[in-house]
Amino acid sequence: MNSSVNCLVIRQIIHLVTLAALITLALPAASKAGELSPRAEAPQFTERFGGAPVKIVATTVVTPGPERPTISRPTLKSEAVVTSDIVRIGDLVENAGEAAEVAIFRAPDVGQTGSVPASRVLDAVLPHRVIGLDTRGLAEVVVTRASRQITSKDMEARILRALAGQSGLPDATNVTVMFDNDIKPLQVEAAITTELRIERLSYDSRSGRFDVTFELPGSAVARRLPLRFTGTIGETFEALVPARAIAQGEVIRAADLVPSRRPKGEAAPNVVREAEQAVGRVAKRALRAGAIVHQSDLVKPEIVARNEAVTISYEVPGIVVSIRGQALEPGALGDVINVINVQSKKTLQATIIAPGRVSVGTTPASSRLANLPSNNAR
């Protein structure tokens, strides 16, 4: 029994040893048979195109997803201009979103400006889901109601166009419209662009009186305004008037004068109409801006003062006599003043020819001057 078992064990051991030997012999061959032959290297980038070796690195391209829309925070404006009679959230708040068209306040009157506290804006927009409103530290928002302005000049032009060509009316270029009362500019809706229309007009060519009533189609504001005016149409002339107030003693410059059409009744022979009648002269009195100026209101600037030492010159062909003198009165260039010959103490009349210089003519007095000794004769 024991010998049979031993034989069986010996056989199994021999079988295992044989199997191990076969496996050992088969592995190198299998390894050799399964090994891939080396891949021929492709030409390098530098071998084909030259330059330094380039290392190609594989990268993963990530495609960005759709951008999320940026939501801007609602921000309070410092000022707003509106054209209607209501103020909407969008007028006062930037980035108000769907609430922008919601009306929250009444607008100021046409052409007027008002303000609304920032705290009231916050309270007004909160029910409409305007959350996180940035006030930027503002205490209020200034709101202006836009307007169109109609002035007295617009009315004048409209009246003259309506009366153009009527019998008895002077040339339109030489007439002016004078209203009985001062007319302040009229403020109407900014969206109204229609022309001012004359509803009724009467004109008396003998007296120049007119009575006119205007209307502005489409304007609700104009319907509530008094648009009836009276006045006079008269002939005019062009004069030069001060562009600003001019003080007494001030020298007039060209820039100080502007043309102005004045009623014909103000015309006078000595009214300043040309620049050379005033430029370089001195105002004898204070002159108001826009007021008529007469030549008698101006004088030449004095270049010789009273009691000033002057040189008295007497000149005839071939001889010039100059002596010392003293001015007895002031004067401007070209004025004739009394001077005294300090040597003879005689008084002469002389013409001012330059600052500190006067000249005498061929009068009996000047003839006597020529016979006096002088400091300069030639």
Give the key terms.
5-stranded antiparallel beta sheet; 378 residues; 7 helices; Type Iii Antifreeze Protein Isoform Hplc 12; 32% strand; alpha+beta
Topology:
Layout: H1 2-34, H2 45-49, E1 75-76, E2 79-82, E3 86-88, H3 89-92, E4 93-94, E5 103-106, E6 113-117, H4 118-125, E7 140-145, E8 147-150, H5 152-163, E9 175-179, E10 186-189, E11 197-203, E12 209-215, H6 220-223, E13 228-242, E14 257-263, E15 282-283, E16 298-299, E17 302-304, E18 309-316, E19 319-327, E20 331-332, E21 336-341, E22 347-354, E23 357-360, H7 364-370, E24 376-377
The outline comes out as elongated
Count of DSSP strands: 24
Give the percentage of residues in beta strands.
Answer: 25-35%
Largest sheet: 5 strands, antiparallel
Oligomer: single chain
Continuous helix count? 7
Rg result: 53 Å
Integer average pLDDT = 81
The helix content, as a percent range, equals: 10-25%
Residue stretches low in confidence (pLDDT < 50, at least 5 long) are: 25-62, 363-378
Distance between the termini: 183 Å
